[in-house]
Amino acid sequence: MTVPLTDGRLGYVPKTVITQYAASSPKTITVHAEKGYVFNIPSGLGTVRGSFSKGTRLNAIGENGQWYFLSTPDGNGGTSQGFIAKTVAWQRYHGRRWRDTSLL
């Protein structure tokens, strides 16, 4: 992908750098599976960036279909980012799971 620079030249951005998700209000989600894997793209076919155990709370800052986009402190002063499936981690409200009515 090419990107026009302010001085008129063209810059290049590798497609592996581009992450597509719809930004949303930050929400806390909880991993409900025994282990929740985080991928570099919103697909189980992507590269695994890490995993979280059941009960871990995460900060979701965006969504892409049936995936949340995460930005979580990595313990080294930075952040880890990636996608986790909504079937693995979700937000609870008064002890109940939020229901995605867009599929009904």
Note the total helix count: 0
N/C terminus separation: 37 Å
User: Helical content, roughly?
Assistant: under 10%
Q: Describe the sheet with the most strands.
A: 5 strands, antiparallel
Rg calc = 16 Å
Order of helices and strands: EEEEEEEEEEE
Give the CA-based shape: elongated
Strand order of the largest sheet: 8-7-6-3-9
Low-confidence stretches: 100-104
Q: In percent terms, what proportion of residues is strand?
A: over 45%
Mean pLDDT: 81
Helix-strand makeup class: mainly beta
What's the number of extended β-strand segments?
11
Q: Could you please describe the fold and organization of this structure?
A:
- The structure is a single chain.
- The chain is an all-beta fold.
- The protein contains no helices and 11 strands.
- The protein has strands at 2-4, 10-12, 22-31, 35-39, 48-53, 57-64, 67-73, 79-85, 89-90, 92-93, 96-97.
- A 5-stranded antiparallel β-sheet has the order 8-7-6-3-9, with no helix packed on it. Strands 1-2 form a two-stranded antiparallel ribbon.
- The protein is elongated.
- It starts with a strand and ends in a 7-residue tail after the last strand.
- The relative contact order is 0.21.
- Residues 100-104 have low confidence and may be disordered.
